[in-house]
Amino acid sequence: MRKTSNQTKGRIVSAAWELFYQYGYSNTTIDDIVERSNTSKGSFYHYFESKDDLLSSLSYLFDEKYDELDRTMDPNLNPIEKLLLLNRELFLMIENTVSVSMLSQLFSSQLTTKGEKHLLDPDRTYYKLLRKITVEGKQQGIFRNDLSVNDITKAYALYERAMMYDWCISAGNYSLCQYAEKMLPLFLDGLSAH
117 pLDDT exceeds 60? Predict the structure, then answer.
């Protein structure tokens, strides 16, 4: 039953974000989302109080991408290569399926919400995968000894959010992927044991 429940919620979230990207947040109605997801209004309201609640669900879509990458990533890549791959794939997904205004609204909603802050939820696939890669890097002596797994994971996530935030306040006037390809290796070099 739980799997079906998660699939229904996932269909609603996926449909909503496709519509938000295609028509804009303001021009998408709950009826549109219900129709696209092939669910019911009852199902929608079971998971979400309003359309605004869907703003924070973008992190679920990101985690679906991370689940896919975790299953398909070449296990022979070293931890730095894995982090660069994860970043490139996420930022490509953002550039191709999430408008700057929607990502900006997500950040804004996380600043003002009194409820759960999905972007910071340590149980997200994102953080679990980052921790797994960081542990691997520590075991291989790739990351600095004076930094804990949590320090490295938090710093990496913070840096990624900073790049997305900067892209948003710059109105997406440059390629997020290309900027990250240039800057992320410099950041990761600072975490390396050398």
Answer: no
